[in-house]
Design goal:
Elements lengths: L5 E4 L17 E4 L4 E3 L4 E5 L2 E4 L4 E6 L2 H7 L1 E4 L2 E2 L8 E6 L5 E3 L4 E9 L28
Antiparallel strand pairs: 1-5, 2-11, 3-10, 4-9, 6-8, 6-11, 7-9
Length: about 140
């Protein structure tokens, strides 16, 4: 069972998000402009769409593995709240050592629609004990 994602084109030439294959978790997002990223440069790339994410869900914009592998492109930021109705822009950074040119209508990221739980924050004096405790940052690889 799926959910319904309403999408509004903000530009006539925008492309709607697409799930390429059954079983894919993400919907491909497309650029509505050509973009050139020099090494180390980042830009907010327009998609030309806005979405209405169902209540109890949020959108997560993530890398496309092919762009990450071939061009070292990475998405920065990426949480779209259910109450946001503005244009989805994808913040891309070029982590590689070569300039990358993406044509208009390139698949630039994927959008995952994920449920979340409302969270109440409670300040406490102590936290419960666990076997792991405060061990972090690679501690599981130590003997």
């Amino acid at each position: 069972m799926g959910i319904h994602l309403k999408v509004k084109k903000l530009r006539e030439d925008a492309l709607l998000p697409v799930r390429k294959r059954r079983g894919d978790a993400g919907l491909d997002l497309y650029s509505v402009e050509e973009v050139v990223l020099k090494p180390g440069e980042w830009k907010a790339v327009s998609t030309g769409i806005a979405v209405e994410i169902p209540q109890g869900y949020f959108g997560l914009v993530k890398d496309r593995s092919g762009l990450a592998l071939k061009h070292a492109l990475h998405c920065l930021a990426g949480v779209i709240d259910e109450n946001y109705r503005g244009e989805i822009k994808v913040v891309l950074i070029n982590l590689g050592d070569k300039e990358v040119r993406l044509e208009k209508h390139s698949r630039i990221a994927q959008l995952l629609i994920i449920p979340y739980l409302e969270t109440e924050v409670e300040e406490v004096e102590e936290l419960s004990d666990t076997e792991r405790g405060e061990k972090g940052f690679g501690s599981s690889g130590l003997s």
